[in-house]
Write a structure and sequence with these properties.
Strand order of the largest sheet: 6-7-5-2-10-1-11-17-18
Distance between the termini: 10 Å
Shape: globular
Length: 331
């Protein structure tokens, strides 16, 4: 058996879903099963969304289970620990509460199903990941939220796995283009600019005269075409609307918190290049794998082999697999 993907690094691994119900939990379960069969255990599990529930709380669709094995380290709320089929020894509880009460970290003493819920803040997520690592987790695995909303900047080091699914009337070539666009977003270079110290939430900070100043998307008192800001740092998502507003200000250097905050499609990325805008990121993590679900939509079911063949030239040495395909092992 080849060495399992999860055993190749100790960095926290963020699973990034590039659409709703892309198959993040299924990919995570597949990789964990391979790791356990190879003798690797004691992983840390947490999420930046809500995972492991029987049905999606937004769509009502059935969702795959999250199973904790004996020796795993799990972060979720106290209420979800109490209702879990698995049993845990609680080792730490946060002082602040989220949507299901106080967050806690526990070690699994009896395997079974458990629901994972995100902490109420990116800061607390980073603290929980640190605690899971210090507790001795072999590797911390973070199941991301929908539509790429995954705060990978909550840690200073880490890696990502990109997860895709087929859509209605899809083709291997269209899927390959979506993967290529996502790879382009996650390969944005690391910025050398220091992060604005007072930037919070979804705010934007502008660099002018060597000094950062917080502002809005279109600050009227800074709208001077002859003297535009030297750079803009976006605390929130970079959408096409934000990009157009910053371009109208004359900004030609944009920094995002991390690549998961880039919400630009192929046209938006092309516009960046056309305007000679420098796009940078405050955090850059390696891409560890690409997962594709070829049968996510019956009307858009794709041939597995042809889809993998279309993706491998794009992904290079990044492993590509379908977690539902028993014969397709990550290399």
């Amino acid at each position: 058996m080849t060495r399992p993907l999860l055993s190749r690094s100790a960095k926290p691994l963020f699973l990034v879903g590039c659409s709703k119900n892309a198959g993040k939990t299924a990919a995570l379960n597949r990789l964990r099963s391979e790791a356990y069969r190879a003798g690797f255990s004691g992983f840390g599990l947490c999420t930046s969304g809500w995972d492991g529930e029987e049905a999606d709380h937004l769509t009502g669709l059935e969702k795959p289970a999250v199973v904790a094995f004996e020796g795993d380290w799990v972060a979720t709320s106290g209420r979800l620990f109490a209702k879990a089929a698995a049993r845990f020894e609680i080792l730490w509880a946060a002082s602040e509460s989220g949507r299901f009460g106080r967050m806690a970290v526990g070690r699994c003493t009896r395997p079974g199903r458990v629901e994972l819920v995100s902490p109420p803040s990116v800061r607390l997520l980073g603290d929980i990941i640190r605690r899971l690592r210090e507790a001795g987790a072999t590797r911390v695995l973070i199941d991301g939220a929908a539509d790429r909303r995954t705060p990978i900047s909550s840690v200073s080091d880490g890696a990502v796995g990109l997860v895709f699914s087929s859509v209605r009337h899809d083709s291997p070539e269209r899927l390959a283009r979506r993967v290529q666009d996502a790879l382009e977003r996650y390969r944005v270079p690391l910025t050398e600019l220091p992060r604005p110290s007072d930037l919070t939430g979804h705010g934007i900070a502008y660099l002018k005269g060597g000094r950062w100043r917080r502002g809005t998307r279109f600050p009227s008192d800074w709208h001077d075409a002859s003297d535009p800001p030297e750079a803009a740092w976006c605390g929130g998502p970079l959408t096409s609307g934000v990009l157009n507003d910053l371009s109208a200000l004359g900004v030609r250097r944009i920094v995002v918190e991390d690549p998961s905050r880039i919400f630009l499609d192929r046209a938006g990325l092309a516009l960046i290049r056309k305007r000679n805008t420098l796009l940078e990121s405050g955090a850059v993590f390696p891409i560890e794998f690409v997962s594709i679900r070829c049968d996510a939509d019956t009307s858009g079911s794709l041939p597995l082999r042809k889809s993998l063949d279309a993706l491998r030239p794009i992904c290079g040495d990044i492993p590509v697999f379908d977690p539902w395909a028993a014969r397709e092992e990550p290399s």
